[in-house]
Amino acid sequence: MKFAMKAVAATVLLASAGAAFAQKGETVKIAWLDPLSGLMAAVGTNQLKSFQFISEEFNKKNAAGVKFEIIGIDNKLSPQETTSALRSAMDQGARYVVQGNGSGPALAIMDALEKHNARNPGKEVVFLNYAAVDPDLTNSKCSYWHFRLDADTSMKMEALTTFMKDLPEVKKVYLINQNYSHGHQVSKFAKEIMARKRPDVQFVGDDLHPLAQVRDFAPYIAKIKQSGADSVITGNWGSDLALLIKAANDAGLNNVNFYTYYGSVTGSPTAMGAAAAGRVYMVAYAHINLPGELNKIVVDYKKKFNDDMYTGSVYHAFSMLTDAFVKTKSTDPVKVAAALEGMKFKSFNGEVEMRKTDHQLQQGLFISKWEKAGGKYPLDSESTGYTFVPVKYYEPFVASTPTSCQMKRP
Fold this sequence. Notes:
- It is a single chain.
- By secondary structure, the chain is an alpha/beta fold.
- The protein has two domains: about 5-15 and about 25-150 and about 290-300 and about 310-360, Rossmann fold, CATH 3.40.50; about 155-285 and about 365-400, Response regulator (Rossmann fold), CATH 3.40.50.
- The chain is built from 13 helices and 15 strands.
- It has helices at about 5-15, 40-60, 80-90, 105-120, 155-165, 180-195, 220-225, 240-250, 270, 295-305, 315-330, 335-340, 395-400, and strands at about 25-35, 65-75, 95-100, 125-130, 145-150, 170-180, 200-210, 230-235, 255-260, 280-285, 345, 350-355, 360, 365-370, 385-395.
- The chain has a seven-stranded mixed β-sheet with strand order 7-6-8-9-10-14-15, with helices on both faces. The chain has a five-stranded parallel β-sheet with strand order 2-1-3-4-5, sandwiched between helices. A three-stranded antiparallel β-sheet has the order 11-12-13.
- Helix 9 links the parallel strand 9 (about 255-260) and strand 10 (about 280-285).
- The protein is globular and about 60 Å long.
- About 50% of the residues are buried.
């Protein structure tokens, strides 16, 4: 498969040729609302740096001629704190907001913007969701002002189970997830979708634990070992996945494969190390060894911060905003939201489309496996010498799921 990152820039440049930009030189403030404290601070810090770094890259060359400014605010992974942070961001002039860690905070933003935008015509704010994946956000709770750039929980589970159903060694599966909407959805869709594709698979455990509070997962690993599971499915992220994998390695649980959503996120690669090679899989819309424009950004980010740039949806955010600014010759969120609906372009993971009916990005997904870095996949994660190597790519239609969204448009 060929990836054409340059096609995005080329499309934008063509659209802008000869045009006079009403917004040229304008500063576009984007508020980033995610955790900078607590156990998930490392994840939030990485993603804030990713937004800041890629904004600087786009400031050098974006076709709309605007300057992006990122306003980072700690929401402490709390819906209540997120609402306060959003008010602060709007007071500072932000008309665009990005968030991704936790579907509770995402829903708080959506609820607040529905009210704000209805009461304040001319001061509307658009929400670009780069990682909060509860399917309800683009189904029963969908909002015109919300656009999701990640694949939701059900889409990832469709791809993951399509891969797992063809593995004869998968017979007994243990579910362990964080006790909030995302974790509940991972458990729900794993059981429902696997039953449809491999009804012979047994689920031998289904644990939910507090989000970002558990420091020792040894008791959970003991339960997994006792269950006789050959596979674990987990939507855990951040410290909750890193500490889970560490406990598995410490206990010598080397006969069980882990199927994850967020294996590349801060802390997890280091926790896995050589001991987890060949035993951890990840479903995601990207991996760090993708060719093209994103690869250069990943390499430059690593040189600057000695850290991994693993949130590829950040690139989608700036690409789509820039394209919308060019098409509308405006940075007005009302005009931009209309331009984002149905937007299609060639990206690092194939042809993508912002589905108009629910504002869920339709995109290809990879299944990758934790292996030694080298050859076609030289970039390693967290300087471990290991990386997620793609073993299967699924076109968008494989993981696409229907929507119940009844979009209320202004």
